[in-house]
Design brief:
The protein starts with a strand and ends in an 11-residue tail after the last strand. It has one domain. The chain is mainly beta. Helices cover 9% and strands 19% of the residues. The chain contains four helices and 16 strands. The strands form four sheets. Strands 2-15-12-14-13-16 form a six-stranded mixed β-sheet. A five-stranded mixed β-sheet has the order 1-5-7-8-11, with no helix packed on it.
Length: 333
């Protein structure tokens, strides 16, 4: 078994089919234009997984260029809900008050033994076993009491395994609230109304701001993940799950995609922060969970410059807009 904690150069995406009213979505492969509806990506698309390339086929929604996508008519309402005067900030970096910042990624290979896993919400989780290495790295450390996200990437088979609130079961296996397996080689989605290790039913790893991409590659080629203080009891593609009892139409649904406005001046920001901001203009970020508004997620890496990342707090919520939403979906319970 070989285990590494890194941030892989995987960028996931497809651009979805945002539509007029409740009309059905189209599936163009070209970058979305103002007059186009979003594409879900072809169900036949397949791309061999590569450590050095982004995950999922190129027509995946996570990889879609949304820089020219139309703005949602309710964008201002959603931005007000998130906090127009709030600021972007990094939920990743090195260590703060003894807690490791960000979500570590456990990289394994096909010879990694699989272990039993059990879930509180088993009916909406992917069954085990999962290839979790001994002493796997957990969000905020082994003794953390929060979300305890566990992310494992099998680089040989191109599969992602993630668990929410992961704990060793004391018998060589793991238990968690929910878990999901994603094939990083295809556009296959989770079923509607299914959660994952994230509230919106989305994968976490492909949405991370990763040190490898920012510092070594100098480019992020996928959408990011952001949290919102309040969301609506609804979701939109690519999300498959809602996580709220609130019904106000001024609140964004899970899966809403935000974009940094094209005219926002990023020239005064540090070099590496500019890379993050350029990605937010081109690929945007999906609302994936409830939490502190404007908090973007990245990997844990002791090489991050926390002071440099802190400059993200100079980006106001008013600098963002929500692109046109696809049809709303609702979990029937």
């Amino acid at each position: 078994m070989i285990q590494l904690q890194i941030s892989l150069l995987l960028s996931l995406s497809i651009y979805l089919s945002a539509c007029n009213g409740n009309s059905s979505a189209q599936a163009p492969n070209n970058p979305p234009l103002e007059t186009e509806t979003p594409s879900q990506g072809s169900s036949d698309s397949f791309k061999p997984y590569s450590y050095y390339d982004r995950a999922f086929p190129d027509d995946n929604i996570w990889n879609a260029d949304i820089s020219q996508a139309p703005v949602d008519p309710d964008s201002d309402l959603y931005i007000n809900s998130l906090g127009r005067n709030g600021t972007l900030h990094a939920d990743f970096g090195t260590v703060w008050e003894g807690s490791k910042l960000g979500i570590p990624v456990n990289v394994v290979y096909e010879n990694q033994p699989k272990v039993p896993v059990s879930f509180t919400y088993a009916e909406h989780s992917d069954k085990g076993p999962y290839p979790i290495p001994p002493n796997a790295l957990i969000q905020h450390g082994q003794n953390s009491t929060g979300d305890r996200h566990l992310s494992v990437v099998d680089v040989d088979n191109g599969l992602l395994y993630e668990i929410y609130r992961a704990f060793p079961d004391g018998k060589g296996g793991w238990r968690g609230d929910s878990g999901a397996v994603f094939d990083l080689k295809t556009n296959k989605q989770r079923p509607d109304n299914f959660t994952s290790a994230d509230a919106a039913g989305l994968p976490i790893f492909p949405a991370l701001v990763r040190y490898d991409e920012v510092v070594l590659q100098g480019e992020i080629r996928h959408a990011l993940r952001v949290t919102a203080n309040k969301t609506r009891r609804a979701y939109v593609f690519p999300a498959t799950h809602q996580a709220s009892t609130l019904t106000s139409t001024s609140l964004p649904p899970m899966g809403a995609r935000l974009r940094l406005k094209a005219d926002f001046d990023i020239s005064a920001y540090p070099k590496h922060v500019q890379i993050i901001l350029r990605a937010l203009k081109k690929y945007g970020m999906f609302i994936a969970d409830n939490g502190v508004s404007w908090q973007i997620t990245g990997d844990f890496n002791m090489n991050w410059d926390d002071q440099e990342l802190a400059s993200l707090r100079r980006v106001p919520g008013s600098a963002f807009e929500v692109i046109k939403l696809p049809p709303l979906k609702y979990t029937p319970w």
